[in-house]
Amino acid sequence: MFNFEEELKKLPREPGVYLMRDDKDVILYVGKAVNLHNRVRSYFRDNIGRGPMIDKMVSLIARFEYIVTDSELEALVLENNLIKEYSPKYNTLLKDDKTYPYIKVTLGEEYPRILFSRTMKKDRSKYYGPYTSAAAVKDTIELLNRLYSLRTCNRNLPRDIGLERPCLNYHIRQCKAPCQGYVTKEAYRQQVDQALEFLNGNYHTLLKDLEGKMKAAADQLDFESAAGFRDLYNSVKSVAQKQKITDSDGEDKDVIALYQDERDAVVQVFFVRDGRLIGREHYYMTHVSENDRAGILENFVKQFYAGTPFIPRELMLQYEIGDSELIETWLSKRKGSRVHLKVPKIGSREKLVELAAQNARHILEQDRERLKREEGRTIGAAKEIAALLGLDRLDRMEAFDISNINGFENVGSMVVFEKGRPKPSDYRKFRIRTVSGPDDYACMREVLTRRFRHGQEEMRLLEEKNMDRELGSFTRFPDLLMMDGGRGQVNIALSVLEELDLHIPVCGMVKDDNHRTRGLYFHNVELPIDTHSEGFKLITRIQDEAHRFAIEYHRSLRGKAQVKSVLDEIPGVGPARRKALMRRFKSIDEIRNATVEELEELPELNRPAAEGIYAFFRGKEREKEERQK
Predict the structure, then answer these.
(1) pLDDT tens digit string along 507-523?
(2) Sign of dihedral through CA atoms 99, 100, 101, 102?
(3) Where are the domains of the chain?
(4) Is the predicted pLDDT of residue 334 greater than 80, yes or no?
């Protein structure tokens, strides 16, 4: 048993990180402290005005632990690492899984390349970015390779010069083939230097050069070349126009501002590189209700710049943040040069921060409207169905369907919707074991029996081991069973549930003569439903999804069975030859109708094998004719 009084007395008066845990040993909160003794003890004093969220967290603490560090800076780094690792419930968290693209020029190679990269390493390469659009980065790399005829291969040069033939890029004049020694290292490096000038923003020289080449080609009536130079000119001009000048000092900086409502906050970042606004990105922060704006901004800066590989020289912030000097020291250490945190008060810089804040507000308001519409389609639709059926709760719905062709390969599907949204991780497929022939009712009985018996068994095992019921895939029973059909399918489900002593509401999704849903069959009554309502649209989506999932499973089994039942019977045809036959002929009928000569064209088949396949299908035809007689 954790003795709080004794453990609080043992707290050292040193910097470090503390972790609060609940009775299941889950980490609730991670924090740093200049003095662990004072900071951790403050949580367990009577504290009015601390806030309901912190009070709730403190009431859940079953024990705490701490890690002593040599300095407050080390505590800051460790705090960030632990928050990222455990995502504690009561920490303000950055919702971010983005990685940013860079343009990488491999200057450490004798014949450099221009590459797309998601990471920035300490190598001899030069990096440009980060950019917010991967597509724009790829377009720029493609343009540079076309403009300057740079290599795109991964050959080790000069070691591999002359070992292989030049690739297609050389033949279409998009590479000067350094792999063959057709261009000197000095001439190739001049092309690379021009590409670097382009990436540094010097477009004027290149535009003038392309314009001159375009006019010269037109004067010589070489209109094809002139059109090529024109296209390159327009591409470069387009890239140049996208680089909006925002500051004359040419510095790298990030402009950071936020907008907050009662539940969430959005942080907007403008990325300025070499004085140009190259893009923007927004980030959501959660668990913000107990934090002021400056606190949210501080958490964002610490979490975001702990993970991004590039740190600009200056961060322009909307508010003064706590630990600003410590964070400056930490960022400067990570960057390897001085980093400044500034809060502009006047002039164009203050206007830029204000613009970022306005963008954050627009994003949050737009998302609020989008989420409201989405909620109507999902949770709102589920509430409509619950009201129609008179149910108090409708969180999880399960729908089942059967698929077969004249009883061939009977299969069943189970799809799950939670809070009005599909939950594919809980979908299940059933290959019918006990039913042969087209008997949908018997198939449905087997599927439902297997599903709920399996669930009951999982629950029993979890209860014996005193484990969380959410661990099992079948342990969560639905609030409503939705059967693809009317009275017959509903009665089958009710009888299975009665046998297993389960009490789950069951309704049938009734279709009209045109196979369109018209209502729900519930408690022996068909309930009409407004076909324009969100509830009706959700029912249709559930029905379509169950049908789709069953048909796709049946189709995959049917295809495998067809191939196996025929080709695997042919002597001398193994997996490699079977694969080659299906790749070449596409269907069993095409293989059956192929001549020996057509079969022999496959590299995997020799003459005897081709004759054996041909004879096999002729023998099958004779057997069929004899049976018909």
Answers:
(1) 998 877 766 778 888 98
(2) negative
(3) 4-91, 102-201, 253-374, 382-558, 568-628
(4) yes
